[in-house]
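Input/output pair, single chain:
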Amino acid sequence: MDSVVTEIKGMERIKSVMVKNLKKNSIKELEIEGIFIEICLEVKTDFIKDLVKLDENGHIVINCKCETYHPNTDKIHPGIFASGDVADTPFKQIVISAGEGCKAALQAYNYLHADKSKVVADWVSRRK
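Output:
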């Protein structure tokens, strides 16, 4: 956490990166074959802080059904779901965000149709 990549080297393929240690003010070259660039580490949830519960890092607190909570409580906030990098789930990777997004969408579908029909967006539930 005290280092930054200052340069990516290679023409047709990545060969190495130059890494600067900010504490020691030193630079070293690391030979690598690939690189993953993370776009953002900062969560922007200030606009929703009065609507749902946030953790100490600003992530929206959710349960396993992607349901949110009222601010500063453990009471479910009906009809508001969250997923992806903005939620307090670990492992901020696109494949996990996509899966959590699908789960949140299915939960929202079920929430919207709860009083209107017996349609449930889950094939296991339909067999019952």
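Residues 46-126 form a domain with the FAD/NAD(P)-binding domain fold (CATH 3.50.50.60). The chain has two domains: 1-37, 46-126.
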